[in-house]
Design goal:
- The chain is 38% helix and 6% strand.
- It has 133 residues and is mainly alpha-helical.
- It has a domain at 6-78 and 109-119.
- The longest helix is centred in the middle third of the chain and has 20 residues, at 52-71.
- It is globular and about 40 Å long.
- The N and C termini lie far apart (45 Å).
């Protein structure tokens, strides 16, 4: 079962317009990416175990990821390309480089990370620290 519907994306999230034909592919890829981002702590079958605020943040994060993928070239954006510069419709890409020589654009939507930050689902730590008293 998907986390969000096209109706939710359009009427609740109010994302940038996405073609109805493109939505299912973008949705499936966005859900995979958000699950990966959260280290697979979220899955459709465990959504009911989270409170309504966290469920809403997960849905909005999936929508933000859909929007990010669509604006950056679609669901195949993470295939890795060595383009120097390209543009077509909404899609525009220029190869970037940093001090360490990385040329890959992040697959994760920055807005999705901000939405999920207060949930604890992004925590990569090794455990809980408790005082022994």
């Amino acid at each position: 079962m998907p986390y969000v519907t096209k109706e939710y994306y359009d009427n609740t999230f109010h994302g940038e317009p996405v073609d109805a034909a493109d939505f299912p592919g973008l949705q499936a890829r966005a859900e995979e990416i958000i699950e990966e981002m959260c280290m697979y702590r979220i899955r459709p079958e465990v959504m009911d175990t989270y409170g309504s605020d966290i469920q809403e943040r997960i849905k909005k994060a999936v929508c933000a990821q859909i929007e990010y993928l669509d604006v950056n070239g679609g669901s195949d954006m993470d295939n890795g390309s060595d383009l120097q510069s390209a543009g077509l419709g909404k899609f525009s890409y220029t190869k970037s480089s940093s001090a360490i020589g990385s040329t890959q654009q992040s697959i994760y939507a920055p807005r999705a990370a901000r939405l999920l930050a207060p949930t604890g689902l992004l925590y990569r730590g090794g455990g809980c620290y408790a005082a022994n008293t």
